[in-house]
Amino acid sequence: MVFSLVFFRVHIPNSVHFDIFKCVTSTPEILFNHPDTNCFTDCIQSLGVWPDTHVVAYDRLGPISAYRAWRMLRVRLPSEHCVAY
Predict the structure, then answer these.
(1) Which residues, other chains included, contact 41 with Cβ-Cβ below 8 Å and sequence gap of 6+?
(2) Which of 13, 18, 21, 72 yields a CA-CA distance of 20 to 30 A from 39?
C-alpha cells in the first residue's frame, strides 16, 4: 500500500507502522468496521504494544488515521497510555 511507502520515507525514528485497515472487514453499510479482536490483538502485539505500553499515534498526512488508530486501541486495548496527534 502507498501509505506504508510514505511512512518509511518520513517516519519518526524508532516508530512503527500500524495499518489501520488490517483485520477490517468492510460491509456495504459500514466501510471501515472495527477490526476482528483476535487479529487486531495479534497485530498490535507483533508491533510490541501491550496494555502497559505508551502509544503515540500520529499521521503526517492528516489527523484522521491517528484518531482511528487511537480509537481502535481504546476500544480493543483499554489503556490510559494512548495519545493521538
Answers:
(1) 76, 77
(2) 13
Do the Cβ atoms of 17 and 34 come closer than 8 Å?
no
- pTM of the predicted model, to two decimals? 0.67
Distance CA 15, CA 75 (A): 22
Residue 54 β-bridge partners: none
Express each pLDDT in 1-14 by its tens digit: 566 666 667 777 78
Q: What is the spatial distance between Cα 73 and Cα 18, in angstroms, rounded to a whole number?
A: 11
Rounded distance between C-alpha atoms, residue 52 and residue 64, angstroms: 24
For residue 10, give the C-alpha cell.
518520513
- Distance, in Å, from the CA atom of 49 to the CA atom of 56, rounded to the nearest integer, reads 11
**Cα separation of the two ends of the chain:** 22
